[in-house]
Amino acid sequence: MEKTRIRFGILGCAEIARKVSRAMLLSPNTTISAVGSRSLEKATAFASDNHFPASTKVYGSYDGVLDDPDVDAVYVPLPTSLHLRWAVLAAEKKKHVLLEKPVALNVGELDAILAACESSGVQFMDATMWMHHPRTLSMKQFLSDEQRFGQLKSVHSTFTYVGEGDFLKNDIRVNPNLDSLGALGDTGWYSIRAILWAHDYELPKTVTAFPDPEYNESGVILTCGATLNWNKDGKVATFYCSFLSNLCMDIIALGTKGNFRVHDFVIPFNEKVGPFYAVANSRWAELSLGCIPEPSEFKIGTDLPQEALMVHEFARLVEGIRGGEAKPEKKWPVISRKTQVVVDAVVASIKKGFVPVEVVY
C-alpha cells in the first residue's frame, strides 16, 4: 500500500520557498497540493520553475490555498509582518502550520498564532531547519555526556553573511514594513535558538545587548549581539549576528571537561554530511608545545537534507493528528516561544540603552 502523503499548500513564492518546496518533493511522506501568490502568473511560473507535480493547483491569492480542501498543511514563508494574519487564518481553516522564522514581530503576535493553532487542534512548527539534522542529535549527546563534556559553562554562536547586490536596499529583511527585526530576526534567531538548545531550553535570567548595533537608513538592524546570563553556576552565552560580515555559522560550547564547535550549523557546507569537532579532558602536552588529545572530527551523514527531514517530521506529526492517534506536539510551540522571548529581550535592551533586561516567559 502506498504511504499516505501530507498535502502541503505554500503561501507565497519567496526564495526560501524554493528550497523548502524541493524538500517537500524529496520527503517520502509529503507532496505539494497547491501554491498561491498575489498574482496567478507568479504562482504558475513558480510551480513550473520548481518542478511541482502536474496535479499542483495554483492560485492568484493566499485565500485560495487556505480554502482548498485538498490542502492538509501550509508552509508560510511570507514576510514576518504578515505572519499574524495568515498563520492565524490558516489555523482557523484547520490547516497545520509550518511557519518560517522569525515567527513573529514579538511574542504577543506569536501568542495569537499559537492560540489559534491550539484552538483548532493543528500542529505548529517553525522552520528552523538545522534542528532536524541528525548531527544536531549527535552534538546534543556529546553535550549531555557528563564524563566527556561535564557541566556547560559557556556558549557562543555567530551567524553572519554579507548581503550582496541590492540586498541592503531592497530585500524584505531590511524593510521596516516587512521584516523590522532585520538581522536579529533572520540570523540572530538561529544563534539564539542554538544557545537555548545547548541549555536544554532553560531561559536566561537576563539579556544585555551589545552597544553600537548597526542600522540601515530606515532604522532596521544590520548587526547586533547580546550576552545572556543565567546567574548561576557561572553560565553565560553570547551571540553575534550580521548582514555585513563574511559568512560564518559557528557554535562553540565549553564545558568543565570538554568542548565542541561546529562551523556550519545553520546550513551544512555539504548537505549529505554534517561535521563537528569535539574534545574531552584536554591538557597541555610536554613543555606546553601543544595540547592532547587533539579535537576529533565527527562526520554525521544523512540520506535526506535537513529541510526534507524537517518537513518529513512535521508531516509525521500531522498524520498522527489526522488519524486520531495523537494530539499536536507541544514542544515545538514552546521552543518557538522561548526563542521569541529572547529576541524580544534583545530588542528591549537595545531600546533601553543596552541595560540588562529580565527575561519573562
UniProtKB/TrEMBL annotation:
It comes from the Eukaryota. Residues 144-260 form the GFO/IDH/MocA-like oxidoreductase domain. InterPro entries: Gfo/Idh/MocA-like_OxRdtase_N, GFO_IDH_MocA-like_dom, NAD(P)-bd_dom_sf. Pfam families: GFO_IDH_MocA (PF01408), GFO_IDH_MocA_C3 (PF22725). Residues 6-125 form the Gfo/Idh/MocA-like oxidoreductase N-terminal domain. GO terms for molecular function: nucleotide binding. PANTHER family: GFO_IDH_MOCA-LIKE OXIDOREDUCTASE N-TERMINAL DOMAIN-CONTAINING PROTEIN (PTHR46368:SF19), PTHR46368. Belongs to the Gfo/Idh/MocA family. This is Uncharacterized protein. The lineage of its organism: Eukaryota, Viridiplantae, Streptophyta, Embryophyta, Tracheophyta.
